[in-house]
Prior knowledge:
The structure holds two protein chains of two kinds. Chain A is an alpha/beta fold. Chain A has helices spanning 6-10, 27-39, 50-70, 83-93, 116-125, 145-148, 171-180, 200-203, 228-233, 268-282, 286-305, 334-342, 356-361, 378-395, and strands spanning 15-16, 77-80, 103-107, 128-132, 153-159, 184-188, 207-211, 222-226, 244-248, 251-254, 310-313, 324-329, 346-347, 349-351, 367-371.
Amino acid sequence: MKSEFPLLAAQPGLHYLDSAATAQIHRGALDAVLRHETGSRANVMRGTYALAEAADQAYESARTSAARFLNAAADEIVFTSGATAALNLVAHAFGAGLQAGDRVLVSQAEHHSNFVPWLMLRERQGIALDILPLRPDGQLDLDRLPELLHDQTRLVALTHCSNVTGAVTDVAAVVDAARRVGAKVLLDGAQAVQHGPQDVRVMGIDFYAFSGHKCFAPGGVGVLWARRELLRDLPPFHGGGGMVGEVGPGGFSWAEAPRRFEAGTPPIAQAVGLAAALDWMMGLDWPRLRMREAELCARLLDGLHDIRGLRVLGSMRADRRAPIVSFEMAGLHPHDICQVLDARGLALRGGHHCAQPLLAALGVEACTRASLALYNDAADVAALLDGLRHAAKVLR
Amino acid sequence: MSGGEELYQQAIKDWAQADHGHGRLDPADAAACADSPLCGDRVRLTLRLDSGRVAALAQETRGCLLCRAAASLLGRRASGMDAAAAASATAALEALLAEGRDAPPAWPELAMFAPARSFRSRHKCVLLPFRALRQALEGVSHREQ
Lengths: 396, 145
C-alpha cells in the first residue's frame, strides 16, 4: 500500500503516524491534479470555449464523486476550502436564521473547528450553547442528551470521530434524540472519512463536513453536504462571482444551491484530485481494511499498555475507536517526545490538537497522538513502541 | 528525520529539573503570562522590583524541557535585570537561535540552547520565558513613563 503514496514510497524509513492531521496524498489524486492542470485548466462556469467546458465537466464530475462517497445527490455537495470552512458556512448560513432563545448543542469532544464557530454565533446572535460532556472513556455521554436538548434546540453539531481519543459517535442515538425536539444534526466528519465512505442517508443526518487532505487528496478543498431542502433555503455566506443570479445597484438575487455557496473561483484542481482519491477509496475492500486498522490499533494499544508511566486517553478497546490514539507519559512533555521520535523517523504530533475543551475535560494539558491510516503497518507500530521506550531513556 | 536527540543535553535536563525560582510572589510588583497558543506552553512570571530592577523572580512554567530550562535559568539569573537588560538577553538568545551567534559573555548558559537552532518550531519554546520577562519589565517601565 505504501508504494501507492509517492511521499511514503520516496522515504521508506519514514513511519508516518500523523494522518489525523494530514493524510498522505494518493498517487491517483496527484496524477489527476497534474492531468487537470496540464490538460483542462480553465475557470469554471465562466467560459464557453472547449477548455472551459472541460474544466466545467471535471469540476461537476468531482461533485458527483463526492456525492457518491456520501450516498448523496450531486446538487447537495458544496465544495469549500476544507472542513473548517464548511462548518463556518453552516454556522453563518444556518445560524443566520437563529436568534436569542434558540439553542445549539455541541460537545466537549469537538475540534476547535466545530466549537469556535458556535461560540462566535453565540456572540453574534445571542443563542445559547449547550455542551454535551464526555464519559471518562472519552465517549460522548449520550445519557445526558435528554436533559441538554430543549424545544429551542435548533441544531446538534457533533464530531463523527474524535481527533484525540478516536471515539466514534453513536450517530443513531444522537439523531433519535435530536429528532424528538425537532433539531437538525450536523456531523464533523473530518476524522471519519479517512476510514471509508460514509452514508449520510443511513445516518439520517442533515449536514456533513469533511476535508480532502485527510482522505488522501490535496489540501485546500473540502465538502459540505446538506439535505437539498435545507440548502435550497439557506442564505449565502460569502458574496462574489458565481453565487448570484442578477446583480445591480439595488441588490442581487441568489444563485441556486450549491453554487450559491461557492463564491469566487472554487478549488477546481483540488476538487478533481479529491474526486480521484474518493473514487479510489470507493473501490477498496473496506470491511477488510477496517479489520486491519482495528488489528493494528489493538497491537498499538497493547504495546502502549506495557510502557510504564504511559496513560492512553480514551478507551483501550480497539473496537470502540478509530485508530487515533493519544497518550501522556508521566513527566515527559509531548513536544520532547515527538522531537526524540522524529530523530528515529517517526512523525507524530504533540500538543492540544485544537481540542482544548476535550483535554480540559480529561484533565490533560497536552498529549502525544499516533494516528494510523490504511498505509500503516506492523513495522510502524513496532518502531513507535521502541521509540517511546527510547524517548523515556533520553528525556529522563 | 532529524538529529533531535542532541537537544537534550544533560545541562538542559539539569536546568529544567532544578526549576529555579518556581512559585508565585504575592504581592508582586509586576507580572506577565506568556502563552504559545499552538502547543499550550505557558509561563507565568511574578516579580518584585527595586528601582526598576528585578529583586526577586518567581516562575510557574507548563511546557517542554527547553521551555522549563529557560524559565529555570531566569529563576537563577534574572536578579538585578531591568527592562533594557531583559531586552538585550532576549535579543542575544534570538540571535543565537536564528543566526547561530555565540552566547554573550554575560550569558554563557545560553550556549546550551544552540542545538535548538536547527529546529525552528522549538525556538518559541526557548524564548517564551525571556519574552515573558521582557513583557513584565516593559509593562512597568511604560507605566512609569
